[in-house]
Design a protein that fits this description.
The structure is a homodimer.
Chain A (H helix, E strand, L loop, with lengths): L25 E5 L3 E2 L5 E2 L2 E8 L9 E5 L26 E2 L4 E2 L4 E5 L14 E2 L4 E2 L9 H15 L4 E7 L1 H12 L6 E5 L7 H15 L16 H15 L2 H7 L20 H14 L4 H13 L2 H5 L2 H5 L5 E7 L7 H13 L4 E6 L13 H12 L11
Parallel strand pairs in A: 5-8, 5-11, 6-7, 11-12, 12-13, 13-14
Antiparallel strand pairs in A: 1-4, 2-3, 4-8, 9-10
Helix pairs in contact in A: 1-2, 3-4, 3-7, 4-6
Amino acid sequence: MPDLDDVPAGAPAVADPGSVGVVASRDFVHAAPFTFQSGQSLPGFTLRYETYGELNAARDNAILICHALSGDHHCAGRHATDDRKPGWWDNLIGPGKAVDTRRFFVICSNCLGGCVGSTGPSSVNPATGRPYGIAFPFVTIRDMVRAQKLLLDHLGVATLHAAIGGSMGGMQVLQWGIEYPGFVRRLLAMATTSREGAQAIAFNEVGRQAIMQDPAWNQGDYVREAGPRTGLAIARMMAHITYVSDASMDRKFGRRKKGTANGDAYTFDIQFEVESYLRHQGQSFINRFDANSYLYITRALDQFDLAHAYGSVETAFAPVQAETLVVGFTSDWLFPPEQNRAIVHALLRAGKRATYAELATDLGHDSFLLESEDLYALVRSFLEREAAVLVDFSI
Amino acid sequence: MPDLDDVPAGAPAVADPGSVGVVASRDFVHAAPFTFQSGQSLPGFTLRYETYGELNAARDNAILICHALSGDHHCAGRHATDDRKPGWWDNLIGPGKAVDTRRFFVICSNCLGGCVGSTGPSSVNPATGRPYGIAFPFVTIRDMVRAQKLLLDHLGVATLHAAIGGSMGGMQVLQWGIEYPGFVRRLLAMATTSREGAQAIAFNEVGRQAIMQDPAWNQGDYVREAGPRTGLAIARMMAHITYVSDASMDRKFGRRKKGTANGDAYTFDIQFEVESYLRHQGQSFINRFDANSYLYITRALDQFDLAHAYGSVETAFAPVQAETLVVGFTSDWLFPPEQNRAIVHALLRAGKRATYAELATDLGHDSFLLESEDLYALVRSFLEREAAVLVDFSI
């Protein structure tokens, strides 16, 4: 669940030799019926995506980047030279970076059900001429992955060198290994889980309630600019707290006060800097995100449960052929290290090549997004090492 | 911040020899002007309170119980024999219990600014004939304590044997030791802090925003039954998550689903038991709590900062004469053990008699409210040991 609103504004991409530079999004239109896991279907869908680097002749150097709840397809470079911020994983992806675009063909698409160009509840329902709203089919992590596969087929990718993602992106990465085992060579999942615990579901539920109880939600039937902005901002403010950590908030804001020379102000307006920061998080989010997409995607997160879906996590992982690296972060209390480690243990019990790395940070769940030479080194070496040759001894 | 909605319903008090039995609340009316720390004032105020046990002839066996954010004065016994639940600290207070009402005269009052009988923003402003709303003076922890002192004077208490409280109640306990050092012999604070960190302020701010952004809040001008119930329920649902722990929620609910035989339901209605539980928490809270009181009391929590108010925590504690026991709980992530321990270290640096005890629980912040023989033993022995005789060596 990347904190897009918190990426530091840097110099324009053109001045940065490690940047992929100015990039453009494209739309993949799948003009055939698509049936969701729920049994509902759409006559077709669009995925907005970006690519960086070039697909090689063997068509086997592609890396799929999977975004988190509030992320999108724009993960590197800038859309214009004067963009204030680059894509959300620009620190990781670019020429010479850990995900090296001189070598790899990098693809990232806005997820099915999203609101940044891909088909989702804010898309127009051709049957009514109005946004789908909650008439949109329920979306699962597996639906997102199946839609991504159609995009990769369209792009001519023969094999994925790797699928990489954090948080919800990590769930997609695991699902990729299960759903298309012969297609993906390496799974790199960070700050994720094979299923959320009760606390994570609880936070998502409070966010959904904040949205759905906002009168402007109107049973999901609204136009974007007149939607449940208040509820969505509340949901985002709360969720943001869960993406960081007590220690990082204390370091960044502590109890510093706004204005009034740190004196005692008696007001319900902003007193503390952390309040101002949170309100900014809420306000900037409602200008770029759709409330119904927030409902759909948090439901997809809550419903993702490999043990439940396949009988056990080990059974879920039985088809996996890829090598897997899972990275947990010590200060992540949303999807804590234990849940990341448990994924690797289940893979090992299923007889797979998997390893776990834990990075000590105090930045919380969003650690996977932040600058870390340790993380870059892990990613780089995992991508560079040879994939295991799979020999079928059963012949 | 006691979880009043979660106290198990037991047998009627009359069947429980350890219960104080059927109790009645009374009102203390202070009919003289009261000036708040903010400089604002009221012509007088009412505190609703309960007492259990008898004040002795020396008038020195009184114990003051200080409640937390969502608590009130009804901390033991039942108001009627068929009450579904006893007072919120009934497990701790009663004949033969850790706070033994055969020996002690126990007093608990609803805090100033509260909404359960004491004067607060939902009280009628005699100047307008309508509730004060946000015309009510800002309340601080120190204001609450000063009002309690007037009640104790009215009751004829000469010396407090102890002041006891958890969470916000613990803040009051610390303030008691600073404000009335010659009056209180023992301070027993649990699951508390000498000042909240940024994360706790952040959660309170999201709760306040949920209330204040609810159109029914109407700048604080509403009648109780038509108030911002939606916003208050959202605030409570979120806050409740912070009172418990990931582990306790997982043990209690895990990912169990409601109805539909644990199958995959595709709906934004309740799917998981934890969602149903949280909604119940929100709904039961709005029937017993006033949204403006929630704003005032969370502001009091956020503003409580002994280091800021007195220059340093050590300076704050300089006047303290009482012996202090602070109890932290390992799973409390709202006011974590470090913050509790830090109080004792500051007291020790200030040359005071203070000790810290840490109990291993996985129940989170609300651990102080729950049944624990370890906690009972700590409380009982702290109350029973002789207070230090304070000898002034400066003569």
